[in-house]
Amino acid sequence: MRILEEFYYGNIDPHERHFKKDDAFLELLRLASKNEQALTATLTGQQKETFEKYMMVHAEMCDFAERESFIRGFKLGLRFMTEAYHTATG
How far apart are CA 26 and CA 22, in angstroms? Predict the structure, then answer.
């Protein structure tokens, strides 16, 4: 099956990531989780609520940045392909 068909049928998920046990990102994720748990254990109810709101906004910002990076990368890839095509045929 061609890549566009795979994408259309949902067999390709741009958000899907696989991590190895020794992956640096996975280690950072574990460290962040550990520190978040330590921090929230010291907060009052109101502070926890404020922190949760902050984390939700931060997650939205990360999603936005990731989406924009994906779009820019895709467009850049298309520009590479276009130039390569025109160079090969021109």
Answer: 7
